[in-house]
Design a protein that fits this description.
Elements (H helix, E strand, L loop, with lengths): L6 H14 L11 H39 L5 H10 L6 H10 L1 H12 L1
Helix pairs in contact: 1-2, 2-4, 4-5
Length: 115
């Protein structure tokens, strides 16, 4: 009995991997064994960094708020502490946006906190 090999499925499986590695450098895009390893590692990084991105943005917002509050002679931690005491519920994302794009509004929030 002749050996049965499902070439159609095998080729489809390989093509799927190679299609995902399009644009990779060198043999990583067209050598199947190298492509599999690179793709798996890339997908692991993608999964990890989707979660890491949230922390990266939070730290960016904190840096922006800190820079803006220091212009008015206050530190970030002081500002956030006073915000909490005054029960002003603004997220860091919103505060950073105000600091960057609407300095007058941010100054109003800061003056409210100072008083």
């Amino acid at each position: 009995m002749p050996r049965s090999v499902n070439t159609v499925a095998s080729r489809r499986r390989r093509k799927k991997i190679l299609k995902q590695t399009k644009g990779f450098f060198g043999s990583r895009k067209n050598v199947y064994s190298a492509a599999i390893n690179t793709l798996e590692k890339g997908l692991i990084y993608a999964y990890r960094d989707r979660r890491k991105k949230k922390g990266d943005f939070r730290s960016l917002w904190i840096q922006r708020i800190n820079a803006a509050t220091r212009e008015y002679g206050m530190s970030y931690s002081e500002f956030m502490g006073k915000l909490r005491k005054k029960n002003i519920a603004l997220s860091r994302k919103v505060l950073a946006d105000l600091a960057m794009n609407h300095p007058k509004a941010f100054e109003a929030v800061l003056n409210e906190v100072k008083s």
